[in-house]
Design goal:
The chain is an alpha/beta fold and about 160 residues long. The protein has helices at about 50-60, 75-85, 100-115, 135-145; strands spanning about 1-15, 25-35, 65-70, 90-95, 120-125, 130-135. The structure holds the ligand Nc1nc2c(c(=O)[nH]1)N=C([C@H](O)[C@H](O)COP(=O)(O)OP(=O)(O)OP(=O)(O)O)CN2.
């Protein structure tokens, strides 16, 4: 049986590797749908609140009203300098790779499974018309890619 749980957060980012509008700072209302494999024991499988217990604070503290930033984006160094000069503590979610929705899905999938939740699919909606469906197989393939040292850089297949 699958339980679907939906969450959202608002975050800023840019994709500095794309030579288009996406290299400008901008934000999204990210819609997250988690698909959990559950087993029922009698009338109930896993309580809906058991997922929220882990995930609501996780999204609120790490992603909501944060800036998703690639550690090799020159802007990251600028923001670090700003915080050092002003003492301001900006909420930055640092990525080892560009903050594409694909890489966000990998990051979230890894973090959610770290809580011991049996996540089998993650849908990430970045805009009104674009959603990616990221499966357990996608995650395992990405783990091998990244462990094999595949470039984390965006590969934009020409249309
Ligand atoms: N495969 C991907 N394509 C794009 C990504 C991504 O992460 N993966 N990201 C972007 C940008 O973040 C951009 O902000 C969204 O681009 P846009 O082309 O505007 O997206 P939509 O067409 O879905 O937006 P609508 O407002 O619904 O028209 C670009 N591409």
């Amino acid at each position: 049986m699958i339980i679907q749980k939906s969450y959202k957060f608002y975050a800023a980012h840019r994709n500095e590797e794309l030579q288009d509008k996406c290299s400008n700072l901008h934000g999204h209302r990210y819609g997250i749908v988690c698909h959990f494999q559950v087993e029922r024991d009698g009338a109930i499988s896993t309580l809906f609140g058991d997922f929220d217990h882990f995930l609501e604070p996780h999204f609120k503290e790490n992603y909501d009203h944060a800036m998703l930033i690639h550690q090799h984006d020159p802007l990251y160094e600028t923001l670090q300098g700003h915080m050092k000069r002003t003492g301001e503590n900006l909420r930055l979610k640092v990525f080892p790779n560009p903050t594409s929705v694909e890489n966000l899905a990998f990051m979230l999938f890894s973090e959610i499974r770290e809580f011991g939740l049996d996540l089998v699919q993650l849908d990430v909606q970045e805009t009104d018309t674009s959603i990616i469906q990221y499966t357990l197989n996608d995650w395992r393939a990405d783990q091998e890619r990244f462990e094999a040292g595949a470039p984390h850089h965006a590969t934009v297949d020409s249309p």
